[in-house]
Amino acid sequence: MNDLFQSQPRHQPLAARMRPETLAHYVGQTHLLGQGKPLREAIERGQLHSMVLWGPPGVGKTTFARLLAQECDARFATLSAVLAGVKQIRQAVAEAEQHSAQFGRGTILFVDEVHRFNKSQQDAFLPYVEEGTVTFVGATTENPAFELNNALLSRCRVYLLRSLSQEELNGLLTRALAEDAELSARNIRIPQDILDKITLSADGDARSALNLLEIACDLSREESGEQVIDDSVLTEVLSADVRRFDKGGDYFYDQISALHKSVRGSDPDAALYWFARMIDGGCDPLYIARRAVRMASEDIGNADPRAMEIALNAWDVQERLGSPEGELAIAQAIVYLAIAAKSNAVYSAYKRALADVRREPSYEVPIHLRNAPTKLAKSMAHGAEYRYAHDEPEGFAAGENYFPEAIADRRYYHPVNRGLEGKILEKLQRLESLNRKSPLQRYPSPEKP
């Protein structure tokens, strides 16, 4: 009779069972670990150094750190930045020092999600990394340049781990079906096209691919002594699938960057693709609508002022009607923005003007431009020499200047010869010609470029 209180073996998920035991079985990252690569050669020589592993989930950061310790005959210790603090960091270092004194072996201290540590917690590692008490290996899904202290980064090498290719994931799942004892005993039959759909849905994430395969095997149906995984099983498995999209993280900003650059590059198809990727991943459509307004101002401007109106209308539709009507309106706006005439002249002019304002003195408002709401102001000649443009020929006071005298010849706005801005350019050139010819120039200055 079994003892109810006797401990039973804990079931491990397929992803844990398939964790490689040697570097030879490690899947992916050939740009770092292929034969002849510097990191691979350093590992083979047992030359440890502190590093940060930067990459998306499921690409093998933790697995690599474990194999690194194994290959270099080092003790492996781990901390999670979600749960640990300075106290746990000091305790881990003390244990590393004790182990080194007793057994003469170094310690690899693996810190998962290291970007979640604050500045003081990251600083706590510095003396121990500097002295070589531990070999620091941090793992992060966020850009280390933004999330980690410069002091810590300067003591580490950063390695970028890439998403696994569909071919690499296919090989991993095929090996799992053949080599995992639990799966091979069940006589699983899965057509190649179904396997391809699983790896495509995993989106470069090995852990996700193995988890999906394991769920599919659990839901497989019996047929002629085999466990069959077909389209009906796969539909059930993938019903809750969400593509990789880290709201607020690097994936988020990389994708909105790709969308913005596709619009700027006048490619409506690529812009629609990135828009669909973000919506499929769970991005708030209102965020994209707001960014579309920015694109209309920054990259189109006066070349086609209708772009701003269309972007604002799409934002309004999303707020009024929600999904899916709002998303269709945003898609319409994005396509229009992509094909519209482009100009960043206003955006560039504003940045130049703002830079001047911040760098230069606060020049006084010229007397002729000052307001004169009181008798005192009028007695001081405020606005006395102002020329009212509507009373001038063509509604333009030729020769007048609206800058402080010290910067009278300043020019910020340079329209491009595209779209409506081409007409604006023609008008400004004509007005500039009138200014040059006028005998009533406010303060004669060199010709504007």
List its salient traits.
Zinc Finger, Delta Prime, domain 3, Helicase, Ruva Protein, domain 3, 3-stranded mixed β-sheet, alpha/beta, Rossmann fold, elongated, 4 domains, 449 residues, 8 strands, 5-stranded parallel β-sheet
Task: Tell me briefly what this model is.
With 449 residues, the protein is α/β, with parallel strands linked by helices. The chain has helices at 14-17, 30-33, 38-44, 61-71, 86-103, 119-123, 126-131, 144-147, 150-153, 166-179, 181-185, 192-202, 206-219, 231-237, 250-264, 268-280, 285-300, 306-321, 325-339, 345-359, 375-379, 419-437, and strands spanning 51-54, 75-80, 107-112, 135-140, 157-160, 188-189, 221-223, 226-228.
Order of helices and strands: HHHEHEHEHHEHHEHHEHHEEHHHHHHHHH
Tell me the name of the CATH homologous superfamily of the largest domain.
Answer: P-loop containing nucleotide triphosphate hydrolases
Write down the overall geometry: elongated
Using the coordinates shown, work out and report the CATH topology of the largest domain: Rossmann fold
CATH class of the largest domain: Alpha Beta
Average per-residue pLDDT, rounded, comes to 86
CATH architecture of the largest domain: 3-Layer(aba) Sandwich
The low-confidence parts are none
Number of domains: 4
What gyration radius follows from the Cα positions, in whole Å?
A: 32 Å
